[in-house]
Amino acid sequence: MSPLADRRFLKMHGAGNAIVVLDLRGTPVRVTPAEARAIAADAHSRFDQLMVIHDPVTPGTDAFMRIYNTDGSESGACGNGTRCVGYALLDDPAMARPAENGALTLETKAGLVAVKRVTERSFTVDMGQPRLRWDEIPLAEPFPDTRRIELQVGPIDDPILHSPAAVSMGNPHAIFFVERDPDGYDLGRIGPLLEAHPIFPERANISIAQVSGRDTIKLRVWERGAGLTLACGTAACATVVAAARLRMIGRAARVALPGGELSIEWRADDHVLMTGPVFLEGEGTFAPELFAGLDV
Ligand SMILES: N[C@H](CCC[C@H](N)C(=O)O)C(=O)O
Predict the structure, then answer these.
(1) Whom does it interact with, and what assembly results (predicted)?
(2) 100: which of 77, 140, 149, 206 is 20 to 30 A away, CA to CA?
């Protein structure tokens, strides 16, 4: 029987990105990829990302987070999910712990992020510094300038979809800047081709972005391990960094995604701040039969 059976979870979303929050602090339990896939497959607990809260590892941090995509793969970062964890650790009756002036420091396998409340349902996350070197994204070949890389993408004939920007926010992103409305691209078809392109040894999140003003961007995202989502926080951060590097905008922008708007600032100290909403849809417990047949 899975140790996750009958455990309580929060069902949330951040700008439409479906998030499940699970608190495993005080236990030695670690979610397996198969368990994550089983949770995602259930209508009551379906998610784009599962955010699992563990006991802190590094002194001075409040918790360690493991982040699972729908396909069970783990990510080093999730902006929308981190805002939801901030809400859970500050407001949920069962999960909340006292916090210094409503701010938390969380750790993932990619490093530290800091989340703080702005209003009752809006939080700001310091997502840390972007990683811009080819081997930090990572890319399979040494591109000296990751502001634009060149891909050979046989099945895609639109040349603009051959030269993305590459940025990591603790997870890999390829951003294609287009003149036309991003909705005019069949991201459901080209997303998986690009996600799995051999230039991305750890796959990549695929964004199509239209800079619609000095500080406004329209964004559509195919997420690594989750597919089309209504919002992707790290993609919004990566896109603002990429656009700023290409001198298409200043260092801040409002990013419009299908599920909502995120405000992003790439600060002069190189940290990227993301501000956006959180929504609590409800809570539940994992039915034991969810994990039937899994050898856990
Ligand atoms: N699919 C992403 C993780 C979640 C990112 C997204 N949901 C966000 O809000 O940043 C990856 O595997 O890198």
Answers:
(1) Homodimer.
(2) 77
